[in-house]
Amino acid sequence: MSDIPVSVTDDATAVFVEHRELMFGVVYNMLGSVADTEDVLQETWLSWTARTADSPLDGIANPRAYLVRIAVNHALARRAAIIRRQETYVGPWLPEPLVAVGEEAGADDPALRTESVSLAMLVVLESLTPLERAVFVLHEVFGYPHTEIAEIIDRSPAAVRQLGHRAREHVHARRPLYAAHPRVRREATERFVRAAVGGDLAALMEILAPDVTVWTDAGGKRKRAGLRPVHGRDKAVRLFDSFTRRGGAGEDGGSLDLRYRRVNGDDAAVLFQGEEPYAVLVLDLTPDGERVSGVYVVSNPDKLTHVRREGA
Question: How far, CA to CA in Å, does 116 sit from each of 31, 101, 137?
Fold first, then answer.
Protein backbone atom coordinates (compact mmCIF):
# COMPACT_ATOMS: atom_id res chain seq x y z
CA MET A 1 0.00 0.00 0.00
CA SER A 2 1.33 3.45 -0.93
CA ASP A 3 2.29 5.84 1.87
CA ILE A 4 1.17 8.82 -0.23
CA PRO A 5 -1.81 10.58 1.34
CA VAL A 6 -5.02 10.02 -0.63
CA SER A 7 -5.58 13.77 -0.80
CA VAL A 8 -2.29 14.21 -2.67
CA THR A 9 -3.13 11.56 -5.30
CA ASP A 10 -6.68 12.90 -5.67
CA ASP A 11 -5.36 16.42 -6.18
CA ALA A 12 -2.79 15.19 -8.72
CA THR A 13 -5.48 13.33 -10.65
CA ALA A 14 -7.79 16.36 -10.64
CA VAL A 15 -5.04 18.62 -11.99
CA PHE A 16 -4.16 16.12 -14.73
CA VAL A 17 -7.80 15.74 -15.79
CA GLU A 18 -8.23 19.52 -15.78
CA HIS A 19 -5.43 19.94 -18.33
CA ARG A 20 -5.88 16.70 -20.28
CA GLU A 21 -7.85 18.34 -23.07
CA LEU A 22 -5.12 20.93 -23.64
CA MET A 23 -2.43 18.25 -23.65
CA PHE A 24 -4.42 16.10 -26.07
CA GLY A 25 -4.74 19.02 -28.50
CA VAL A 26 -1.06 19.95 -28.36
CA VAL A 27 0.18 16.38 -28.71
CA TYR A 28 -2.30 15.41 -31.43
CA ASN A 29 -1.27 18.38 -33.57
CA MET A 30 2.37 17.43 -33.05
CA LEU A 31 1.85 13.77 -33.98
CA GLY A 32 -1.23 13.54 -36.24
CA SER A 33 -2.24 10.28 -34.54
CA VAL A 34 -4.98 9.70 -31.98
CA ALA A 35 -3.50 6.37 -30.88
CA ASP A 36 -0.01 7.81 -30.36
CA THR A 37 -1.49 10.81 -28.58
CA GLU A 38 -3.28 8.55 -26.11
CA ASP A 39 -0.03 6.67 -25.52
CA VAL A 40 1.84 9.93 -24.89
CA LEU A 41 -0.83 11.07 -22.41
CA GLN A 42 -0.44 7.75 -20.59
CA GLU A 43 3.32 8.31 -20.42
CA THR A 44 2.69 11.86 -19.20
CA TRP A 45 0.37 10.55 -16.49
CA LEU A 46 3.02 8.11 -15.29
CA SER A 47 5.66 10.85 -15.20
CA TRP A 48 3.23 13.17 -13.41
CA THR A 49 2.27 10.65 -10.73
CA ALA A 50 5.92 9.73 -10.15
CA ARG A 51 6.72 13.43 -9.62
CA THR A 52 3.79 14.12 -7.32
CA ALA A 53 4.46 10.94 -5.36
CA ASP A 54 7.82 12.27 -4.17
CA SER A 55 6.74 15.76 -3.14
CA PRO A 56 3.53 17.66 -2.35
CA LEU A 57 1.59 18.99 -5.33
CA ASP A 58 1.98 22.55 -4.09
CA GLY A 59 5.71 22.23 -4.74
CA ILE A 60 4.92 22.73 -8.44
CA ALA A 61 4.43 26.43 -9.07
CA ASN A 62 2.60 26.05 -12.40
CA PRO A 63 1.06 22.57 -12.87
CA ARG A 64 -0.31 23.46 -16.31
CA ALA A 65 3.12 24.46 -17.64
CA TYR A 66 4.73 21.46 -15.98
CA LEU A 67 2.27 19.01 -17.55
CA VAL A 68 2.50 20.56 -21.02
CA ARG A 69 6.30 20.38 -20.82
CA ILE A 70 6.17 16.68 -19.91
CA ALA A 71 3.65 15.96 -22.69
CA VAL A 72 5.58 17.89 -25.36
CA ASN A 73 8.85 16.15 -24.57
CA HIS A 74 7.21 12.72 -24.59
CA ALA A 75 5.61 13.71 -27.92
CA LEU A 76 8.99 14.71 -29.38
CA ALA A 77 10.35 11.28 -28.46
CA ARG A 78 7.28 9.60 -29.97
CA ARG A 79 7.61 11.72 -33.12
CA ALA A 80 10.96 10.09 -33.87
CA ALA A 81 9.32 6.66 -33.64
CA ILE A 82 6.50 7.74 -35.96
CA ILE A 83 9.01 8.97 -38.55
CA ARG A 84 10.71 5.56 -38.46
CA ARG A 85 7.33 3.86 -39.03
CA GLN A 86 6.59 6.12 -41.97
CA GLU A 87 9.80 5.05 -43.68
CA THR A 88 8.39 1.54 -44.16
CA TYR A 89 4.73 2.53 -44.53
CA VAL A 90 2.92 1.13 -47.58
CA GLY A 91 1.57 3.90 -49.82
CA PRO A 92 0.92 7.56 -48.91
CA TRP A 93 0.80 8.40 -45.20
CA LEU A 94 -1.96 10.69 -43.94
CA PRO A 95 -2.73 11.84 -40.38
CA GLU A 96 -5.27 9.92 -38.34
CA PRO A 97 -8.53 11.90 -38.68
CA LEU A 98 -10.24 13.33 -35.63
CA VAL A 99 -13.91 12.63 -36.40
CA ALA A 100 -16.89 14.04 -34.48
CA VAL A 101 -19.69 11.55 -33.93
CA GLY A 102 -22.27 13.71 -35.67
CA GLU A 103 -23.87 17.12 -35.84
CA GLU A 104 -25.64 16.46 -32.55
CA ALA A 105 -22.55 15.11 -30.77
CA GLY A 106 -22.31 16.13 -27.15
CA ALA A 107 -19.70 18.33 -25.51
CA ASP A 108 -17.86 15.21 -24.33
CA ASP A 109 -16.85 14.37 -27.90
CA PRO A 110 -13.06 15.00 -28.06
CA ALA A 111 -13.28 15.78 -31.78
CA LEU A 112 -15.44 18.79 -30.93
CA ARG A 113 -13.46 19.94 -27.89
CA THR A 114 -9.93 19.61 -29.21
CA GLU A 115 -8.22 22.56 -30.86
CA SER A 116 -6.99 21.04 -34.11
CA VAL A 117 -5.76 22.29 -37.44
CA SER A 118 -7.26 20.89 -40.63
CA LEU A 119 -6.21 17.55 -42.05
CA ALA A 120 -4.62 19.37 -45.00
CA MET A 121 -2.58 21.53 -42.60
CA LEU A 122 -1.48 18.44 -40.67
CA VAL A 123 -0.14 17.06 -43.96
CA VAL A 124 1.92 20.24 -44.41
CA LEU A 125 3.18 20.02 -40.81
CA GLU A 126 4.56 16.56 -41.60
CA SER A 127 7.33 18.25 -43.60
CA LEU A 128 8.62 20.20 -40.58
CA THR A 129 11.27 18.97 -38.19
CA PRO A 130 9.88 17.75 -34.85
CA LEU A 131 11.11 20.90 -33.04
CA GLU A 132 9.78 23.22 -35.76
CA ARG A 133 6.42 21.50 -35.56
CA ALA A 134 6.33 21.73 -31.77
CA VAL A 135 7.06 25.48 -31.90
CA PHE A 136 4.53 26.06 -34.68
CA VAL A 137 1.78 24.18 -32.85
CA LEU A 138 2.44 25.84 -29.50
CA HIS A 139 2.76 29.37 -30.91
CA GLU A 140 0.45 29.46 -33.93
CA VAL A 141 -2.32 27.13 -32.74
CA PHE A 142 -2.27 27.57 -28.97
CA GLY A 143 -0.81 31.07 -28.65
CA TYR A 144 2.15 30.28 -26.40
CA PRO A 145 4.76 33.08 -26.29
CA HIS A 146 8.27 32.22 -27.44
CA THR A 147 9.67 32.66 -23.94
CA GLU A 148 7.31 30.03 -22.54
CA ILE A 149 7.99 27.65 -25.45
CA ALA A 150 11.72 28.03 -24.74
CA GLU A 151 11.17 26.67 -21.24
CA ILE A 152 9.01 23.81 -22.54
CA ILE A 153 11.54 22.52 -25.11
CA ASP A 154 14.66 23.65 -23.25
CA ARG A 155 15.92 26.05 -25.91
CA SER A 156 16.77 29.75 -25.81
CA PRO A 157 14.05 32.25 -26.81
CA ALA A 158 16.21 33.28 -29.78
CA ALA A 159 16.42 29.67 -30.97
CA VAL A 160 12.66 29.28 -30.57
CA ARG A 161 11.99 32.42 -32.61
CA GLN A 162 14.25 31.09 -35.37
CA LEU A 163 12.48 27.73 -35.33
CA GLY A 164 9.13 29.49 -35.48
CA HIS A 165 10.26 31.71 -38.35
CA ARG A 166 11.44 28.76 -40.44
CA ALA A 167 8.25 26.83 -39.69
CA ARG A 168 5.95 29.72 -40.66
CA GLU A 169 7.83 30.38 -43.90
CA HIS A 170 7.63 26.72 -44.86
CA VAL A 171 3.96 26.36 -43.96
CA HIS A 172 2.85 29.59 -45.62
CA ALA A 173 4.76 28.72 -48.80
CA ARG A 174 2.92 25.40 -49.07
CA ARG A 175 -0.45 26.49 -47.75
CA PRO A 176 -1.78 30.06 -48.21
CA LEU A 177 -3.55 31.51 -45.20
CA TYR A 178 -7.26 31.26 -45.97
CA ALA A 179 -10.18 29.32 -44.59
CA ALA A 180 -13.27 28.46 -46.57
CA HIS A 181 -16.56 29.35 -44.91
CA PRO A 182 -18.15 26.22 -43.35
CA ARG A 183 -21.21 26.56 -45.60
CA VAL A 184 -18.99 26.76 -48.69
CA ARG A 185 -17.01 23.71 -47.58
CA ARG A 186 -20.15 21.71 -46.85
CA GLU A 187 -21.67 22.58 -50.23
CA ALA A 188 -18.45 21.72 -52.06
CA THR A 189 -18.20 18.40 -50.23
CA GLU A 190 -21.78 17.50 -51.10
CA ARG A 191 -21.29 18.50 -54.75
CA PHE A 192 -18.15 16.41 -55.00
CA VAL A 193 -19.73 13.36 -53.34
CA ARG A 194 -22.82 13.53 -55.56
CA ALA A 195 -20.66 13.70 -58.67
CA ALA A 196 -18.23 10.98 -57.57
CA VAL A 197 -20.85 8.53 -56.28
CA GLY A 198 -23.23 9.25 -59.17
CA GLY A 199 -20.55 8.81 -61.81
CA ASP A 200 -21.19 12.32 -63.20
CA LEU A 201 -17.87 12.83 -64.99
CA ALA A 202 -18.81 16.27 -66.33
CA ALA A 203 -19.64 17.48 -62.82
CA LEU A 204 -16.37 16.02 -61.50
CA MET A 205 -14.40 17.82 -64.19
CA GLU A 206 -16.15 21.02 -63.18
CA ILE A 207 -15.52 20.81 -59.45
CA LEU A 208 -11.95 19.43 -59.51
CA ALA A 209 -9.11 21.92 -60.00
CA PRO A 210 -6.77 21.15 -62.94
CA ASP A 211 -3.88 20.44 -60.55
CA VAL A 212 -5.90 18.46 -57.99
CA THR A 213 -4.10 15.72 -56.05
CA VAL A 214 -5.74 12.65 -54.50
CA TRP A 215 -4.03 10.94 -51.56
CA THR A 216 -5.29 7.51 -50.50
CA ASP A 217 -3.91 6.16 -47.24
CA ALA A 218 -4.76 2.48 -46.82
CA GLY A 219 -1.51 1.32 -45.24
CA GLY A 220 -1.44 -1.64 -47.61
CA LYS A 221 -4.64 -3.00 -46.02
CA ARG A 222 -7.15 -2.24 -48.78
CA LYS A 223 -6.85 -4.12 -52.07
CA ARG A 224 -8.00 -1.27 -54.28
CA ALA A 225 -5.95 1.57 -52.83
CA GLY A 226 -3.20 3.19 -54.88
CA LEU A 227 0.38 3.23 -53.69
CA ARG A 228 1.07 6.79 -54.90
CA PRO A 229 -0.80 10.09 -54.93
CA VAL A 230 -2.76 10.77 -58.12
CA HIS A 231 -1.98 14.16 -59.66
CA GLY A 232 -4.09 16.03 -62.20
CA ARG A 233 -7.81 16.31 -62.92
CA ASP A 234 -7.97 13.73 -65.73
CA LYS A 235 -6.28 11.02 -63.64
CA ALA A 236 -8.41 11.87 -60.61
CA VAL A 237 -11.62 11.60 -62.63
CA ARG A 238 -10.55 8.20 -63.98
CA LEU A 239 -9.79 7.06 -60.43
CA PHE A 240 -13.23 8.00 -59.10
CA ASP A 241 -14.94 6.69 -62.23
CA SER A 242 -13.32 3.27 -61.76
CA PHE A 243 -14.59 3.18 -58.16
CA THR A 244 -18.12 4.08 -59.32
CA ARG A 245 -18.04 1.43 -62.06
CA ARG A 246 -17.31 -1.17 -59.40
CA GLY A 247 -20.54 -0.11 -57.76
CA GLY A 248 -18.93 1.91 -55.00
CA ALA A 249 -18.66 -1.29 -53.00
CA GLY A 250 -16.42 -2.02 -50.07
CA GLU A 251 -13.56 -4.49 -49.82
CA ASP A 252 -15.74 -7.62 -49.87
CA GLY A 253 -18.37 -6.22 -52.20
CA GLY A 254 -20.65 -4.98 -49.44
CA SER A 255 -22.51 -1.72 -49.92
CA LEU A 256 -21.18 1.52 -48.44
CA ASP A 257 -23.24 4.05 -46.53
CA LEU A 258 -22.34 7.76 -46.59
CA ARG A 259 -22.50 10.09 -43.61
CA TYR A 260 -21.34 13.68 -43.26
CA ARG A 261 -19.12 14.43 -40.29
CA ARG A 262 -16.88 17.12 -38.85
CA VAL A 263 -13.30 15.97 -39.38
CA ASN A 264 -10.58 18.04 -37.71
CA GLY A 265 -13.11 20.83 -37.50
CA ASP A 266 -14.11 20.77 -41.19
CA ASP A 267 -17.13 19.29 -42.95
CA ALA A 268 -16.18 15.98 -44.55
CA ALA A 269 -17.64 12.61 -45.54
CA VAL A 270 -17.33 9.20 -43.90
CA LEU A 271 -18.14 5.89 -45.59
CA PHE A 272 -19.39 3.00 -43.46
CA GLN A 273 -19.70 -0.65 -44.36
CA GLY A 274 -22.31 -1.94 -41.97
CA GLU A 275 -21.35 -0.59 -38.55
CA GLU A 276 -17.66 -0.32 -39.39
CA PRO A 277 -15.95 2.78 -40.82
CA TYR A 278 -14.57 2.16 -44.31
CA ALA A 279 -13.02 5.51 -45.24
CA VAL A 280 -12.86 9.16 -44.28
CA LEU A 281 -12.84 11.65 -47.15
CA VAL A 282 -11.67 15.23 -46.63
CA LEU A 283 -11.47 17.94 -49.29
CA ASP A 284 -9.09 20.85 -49.63
CA LEU A 285 -10.49 23.79 -51.60
CA THR A 286 -8.99 26.47 -53.80
CA PRO A 287 -8.87 29.94 -52.18
CA ASP A 288 -12.13 30.98 -53.88
CA GLY A 289 -13.86 27.86 -52.53
CA GLU A 290 -15.12 26.96 -55.99
CA ARG A 291 -12.99 23.92 -56.75
CA VAL A 292 -11.34 20.99 -55.02
CA SER A 293 -7.55 21.19 -54.96
CA GLY A 294 -6.92 18.13 -52.80
CA VAL A 295 -8.74 14.95 -51.81
CA TYR A 296 -7.56 13.05 -48.74
CA VAL A 297 -8.93 9.52 -48.32
CA VAL A 298 -8.01 7.65 -45.13
CA SER A 299 -9.06 4.01 -45.37
CA ASN A 300 -6.43 2.28 -43.25
CA PRO A 301 -8.62 0.51 -40.67
CA ASP A 302 -5.98 1.07 -37.98
CA LYS A 303 -6.55 4.82 -38.35
CA LEU A 304 -10.34 4.54 -38.14
CA THR A 305 -10.70 2.72 -34.83
CA HIS A 306 -11.99 5.88 -33.12
CA VAL A 307 -14.65 6.52 -35.78
CA ARG A 308 -18.16 5.54 -34.68
CA ARG A 309 -21.38 5.33 -36.64
CA GLU A 310 -23.61 6.60 -33.82
CA GLY A 311 -25.19 9.96 -34.36
CA ALA A 312 -25.85 9.31 -38.04
Answer: 11, 16, 9
